[in-house]
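dude i think i finally got it to work??
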Amino acid sequence: MRVFLRGSGLLALVLALMLASCAGGGGAGESGSANPSVPSDFTPQSPRIDPAALMADLRTLCDPGMEGRKVGTPGNVRARAFLSARFASLGLEPLGSHHEQPWYWGGTEGVNLVGRLKGTTFPDRVILVSAHFDHIGIIGGKVHPGADDNASGSAALLRLATHLAAHPPAHTVLFCLFDGEESGLLGSQAFVANPPLDLAKIAVVVNLDMVAQGTQGRIFVGGTSYTASLKPALTAAFAGSRVALVPDFERWDHASDQHPFMQRGIPFLFFCVGDDDPWYHTPEDKFERIPASFYWGTTEAILETLLRLDAQANLPALVPHGPAGPEVPPVRRLEPHPWRGGRTTLRP
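look at this
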């Protein structure tokens, strides 16, 4: 549902100027949209997220010095150190002695980051919020910064955690930054194969993968066709947003880190701009091209979705979606655009 809401003229002008500054020259003109019906201003009506901080985190993660954050590379290690320090500063509790959870899967080594905020009312029911922080690195001598894919989801996750750390949730919220997604969902596969908590406690997974490059002013959401009880909170959250919501969109459910959870019957919401990103897996997926207003508006609406889910006393239970277990091969994302066919698989 798409509703256009107007705020104070002066406040809107100040916020718009701040966003233009944060975007480093990005905005509607950099978004690549050729559709004049797509709005250029997605400023939230009642913002709770600091847009400058959101863009600063995004800029850090897709900085060329991170070298594209490919799993196992020095750039990936630098990005992980930044994210781990942020988890610590937010007071997220590690599951074990460290936020970092190393894994070895399918011949690849990586490290997931996991931090927890304990629920005040339902501590034994878990909302898992995830994003992958790795990207595809340097190809042909060119850094692929991965601003939308998926520095955007990782930076948004930090902002969600920042808000909930200051406003303790009713349910326990587990924040997971997965590594090795680009190599075949390896980090999330490793997580569910050797989970640091009882998977049956996870009520819902909220996965963010490519949530910034809204060239058509919309966000696709998978998972509601499987678990219809999630849809009311989602649609209500976006009712006050200028970002257009496209729910029940299950075409890409296999293509990101919700998939291993889905295979084990765990309800999920998967947020993604998908084919609307014209610079997917190219050197042009960089900070300067991110439309800051859309990114901020989307992150705010995802936060509202999360808060509405947390407010529910009865979150959905496990539902059968298909085969489970560590024998399920992950999808290796090798093609120029995995959602346009031609996938291959990698067995662990």
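Residues 222 and 250 are 5 Å apart (CA to CA).
im so relieved honestly
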